[in-house]
Each structure stands twice: as structure tokens, then as C-alpha cells.
Amino acid sequence: MDLRIQENKQRVAEDFSEFFKELCSTGEEVHIALSGGSTPKIVFDQLASEFGADIDWSKVNLYWGDERCVPPSDDESNYKMTVEHLLSKITIPEANIFRILGEDDPEKEAKRYTNVLRDNLPALNGIPCFDLVILGMGDDGHTASIFPHQIELWEMPESCKVATHPESGQKRITITGKVINAAKTVAFLVTGAGKKEKVSAIINEREDYKKFPASLVAPKNGKLIWFLDQDAAAGL
Ligand code: 6PG
User: Fold this and answer.
1) What topology does CATH give the domain 2-25+32-207+217-229?
2) Where are the domains of the chain?
3) Residue whose CA is closest, atom 17 of ligand 1?
4) pTM of the predicted structure, to 2 decimals
């Protein structure tokens, strides 16, 4: 596990953008799962402005680790956020963008997206293998859209499942632990004082840390890198 701690969100965005650009500079096809949340928003802005023209996006295939079950035009949509902060600012083939259809029936879409991953990603032991999975972490220790009250979704045999937000009841599509932990690299983008307590519990393996889904992220044959600001890392 690597910890990359920067003084503030902007510096985290700069650090991660350099990491992302290197990962996309091999000339090989790369398959990347994006995350929603506030930190990725800043990261996407930085990525687009700093390296938008430097990256050969024709080799970059973008997926989502989770999506809210809303239309792509909805302000809640992770896809909409990504269009606003990244996709509208770069030149990437439409065929390289594998959107989760939030507007469709959740169970049907979870099955469809499971097949999208099967049909488009290299597989390791029959499990779709991302080059990079980008994750955020909620104040409650959730990651992707696997929340503590549904932590059993982590172990499900399917690649994608329907989840439910604990407060709003909003349905979500999420990739499961087997896909996350099959990735070559997982990057946690976690910033802000609200994350301090969970980051400390998970990284220091303290108390009941295993009840937080984010604690289950442990790529079997890959790297886990935490991109943190000082506020989120204050408990380490
Ligand atoms: C989502 C994200 C979710 C997010 C965390 C952290 O769809 O909301 O995938 O897992 O990463 O909630 O969000 P913040 O970075 O905004 O705290």
C-alpha cells in the first residue's frame, strides 16, 4: 500500500494527474474505472487542463465503478459530472466511453454492465481486469456504491450489483469487490477532514475497521495507492 499525501486537494489533483498521465503513456490500450464524488471532480478538471492534450485518449477506455440510477442529464449522475469536468474538454472516441445506463431498470443494467466488462476488458482468472480503478470513500467508509449496511455486496459472485443509498434509498449500480481487487492498480482519491477518522481506522487496521467496505480494497495482484490531502491523513 502506497500513501501519497499532499498539502491540499489541488496538490492531490496535480499528483494524481501526473500518475494518470504516466499510466496512459505506454502506448497500450488502458481500461480505467472512474468514480463519482467531489475529489474526482477536482482531479478531472486538473487532468483536462494539465494533460488533456498530452494523452492519446484513443487508447484510453473509460468505465464507471458506480453510477446513480438516474438519467445522464440528472445532476446526480456521475456520468454528467465526468462530461462537465473531463469528457467535454478532451478528444476521446465515443466508442471508448462505456457509460452505465442509469436511466434503465437497475437489475437489467447491472446484468448488462456485467457483460460489458466481460466483453471489453482483459480477464484474469475469468474476472474482468482493469488497469486502474479510481475510488472515493464516503465519510461512512463506503466505496464505489457499496455501503456498510450492504457490505455483503462486496463478496457477490457477479461483477456488478444493484445497491441502495442508506439515507436516500437511491438505487445505484456498482462493481463488486472481486472486480475492484482484480485491478492492476486501485487509486483511492480521499480528501477533507471528514474522512480523517475512517482513513485512520482503515489504514491503521483499528477497532472495527473491517465493517467499512473501503477496508476490503486489497488488489490481489496489484497496487493500492491512497492519494490523500493532509486533512484526510491527519489521523495517520
Ligand atoms: C459516488 C461515488 C462515491 C464517492 C464517495 C466519496 O457515486 O458518490 O462513487 O463512492 O466516491 O461518496 O465522495 P466525496 O469524495 O464527495 O466525499
Assistant:
1) Rossmann fold (3.40.50)
2) 2-25+32-207+217-229
3) 138
4) 0.97
